[in-house]
Specification:
Elements lengths: L5 E3 L2 E4 L2 E2 H8 L3 E5 H14 L4 E5 L6 H10 L2 E4 L2 H9 L7 E3 L6 H9 L4 E4 L2 H10 L4 E8 L21 E2 L4 H11 L3 E7 L9 H18 L5 E3 L17 H19 L5 E4 L3 H4 L3 E12 L3 E5 L8 H5 L6 E3 L5 E7 L8 E9 L7 E5 L20 E5 L2 E6 L4 H5 L4
Helix pairs in contact: 2-3, 8-9
The structure holds ligand LLP.
The site of ligand LLP has 21 residues, from helix 10 and helix 11.
């Protein structure tokens, strides 16, 4: 739950605003986002690694208002398309603090990045190096995405540091070294640094330490000055009670120590460190409110709500697990399966979660840890409008993304 979340009577208070009131005012489903929690997490990263550039992974919660919070906290921003860059520009995010990512950047993405002064573009293929080299006029700074061959031991769909997947230049095969030389050869490009991102929901600091060792080895062997080393994001966030949280200060200490040691060993200058947290900044700040629409009691009890895989595809995509809480009532609880409104049997939000035995239509449910990759992954499946994002702070609630209407949906059809 977001910092400071508490019960007042049986209502759930988030950012000083009751969930009951939020649901009445903004409707359901509704994605509530606690501003203080987001800002606290951003500050925690800056405190843990004051020497590093902390880059918010904008894909985790694409929203100009959230980007403004990050800018004001002193973070940089990672965008992975011209679209995310457009949101960053709408937020007035300074170009010198924007990094562009993506294993595919179209000509439009690259042109937008060049036109709007994105400070660093992380190249991910030889085709891209050639294309960017031809488009760039002013010594565009680039970083090279390297596949270090480190298994972060997380879900296969979000494991990105191993060989034989689509991201980056392989270190082991020599492609990364070759990419460094190609960039250095391009007069219109300037090599600023190396980048890697081994995955998301990474639990073990040792995975990052091993990554640092390999990346410094590459820096030492390439014979080119590398000013920046970007270790990506992926810091694990607990979704259920009892799951341990990522040891950020331990991470900072061990990664800093390994980096200094390896650089001394290889006699290379210590590069400036970059990290790119997304989920670990915004996930826990989010709570989704749903209204129960129907309850079916059979072998199992199915509690059907007014949202589902269109606002949260994560259970279907990654087998992600969520806790669910009924707002407004307590009582003896029984395990139920919370399902969505979409036309698929796989549209299940949470299995075997304890809810009051008398759960019925009209009840309000709250699902925590829904701030990251929820708004970002939401779809219009079954032409259900995407929910709003409502920011709460000091007892005040305001929409930072409004609910999608039928008019919005119809606008694209010819
Ligand atoms: N940097 C790069 C280059 C990335 O691709 C990502 C996430 C991050 C940083 C931030 O990772 P984080 O700190 O948020 O774990 N849709 C999936 C997650 C996909 C992650 C994509 N890349 C999910 O809902 O679990």
């Amino acid at each position: 739950w977001p910092d400071g979340t508490h019960l007042a009577g049986s209502d759930l208070v988030i950012g000083g605003v009751g969930a009951t009131r939020l649901a009445a005012r903004f409707g359901t489903p509704c994605q509530v986002l606690d501003e203080a929690t987001v800002r606290n997490r951003a500050k925690a990263f800056l405190r843990a690694l004051p020497e590093a550039e902390v880059v918010f992974a904008g894909k985790s919660l694409p929203c100009p208002e959230v980007y403004r919070w990050m800018a004001s906290e002193g973070l940089s921003l990672d965008v992975s398309s011209a679209g995310e860059l457009a949101l960053a520009r709408a937020a007035g995010f300074p170009g010198q603090r924007i990094v562009m990512h993506g294993n595919v950047k179209t000509g439009e993405d690259l042109k937008a990045a060049l036109q709007h002064g994105v400070s660093r573009i992380v190249v991910d293929s030889f085709d891209e190096i050639a294309q960017l080299g031809a488009l760039s006029r002013h010594g565009q700074e680039v970083m090279i995405r390297v596949t270090p061959g480190v298994d972060a031991r997380t879900h296969a769909a979000i494991t990105t540091g191993v060989e034989d997947q689509k991201f980056g230049f392989s270190l082991a095969s020599g492609a990364a070294l070759e990419a460094i030389l190609r960039v250095v050869e391009q007069p219109s490009l300037r090599l600023t640094g190396l980048h890697c991102h081994i995955g998301s929901q990474v639990r073990h600091v040792a995975s990052y330490e091993e990554t640092v060792r390999r990346m410094v080895g590459l820096i030492a062997s390439c014979g080119v000055r590398v000013e920046q080393l970007d270790l990506g994001g992926g810091f694990c966030t607990p979704y259920l009670a009892g799951e341990s949280s990522f040891d950020l200060f331990g991470f900072a200490q061990r990664v800093r120590g390994t980096l200094n040691y390896e650089c001394a060993l290889h006699r290379v200058p210590v590069p400036k460190l970059l990290i790119e947290p997304g989920r670990s900044i915004v996930a826990n700040a989010g709570v989704t409110l749903y209204r129960v629409c129907a309850v079916k009691r059979g072998v199992r009890t199915f509690v059907a709500v007014d949202g589902g895989m269109s606002d949260n595809p994560r259970p279907a995509l990654y087998g992600a697990k969520y806790a669910v809480r009924l707002v407004g009532r307590g009582g003896a609880r029984k395990p139920v399966t919370v399902v969505g409104r979409h036309c698929e049997a796989g549209d299940v939000l949470a299995e075997d979660v304890p809810l009051p035995a008398d759960v019925h239509a009209g009840d309000l449910l709250a699902v925590p840890v829904t701030g990251a990759y929820h708004h970002a992954l939401a779809s219009n499946y079954n032409q259900v409008g995407r929910p709003p994002v409502v920011a709460v702070r000091d007892g005040v609630a305001r929409q930072v993304v409004r609910r999608e209407t039928e008019e919005d949906l119809l606008r694209r059809y010819v």
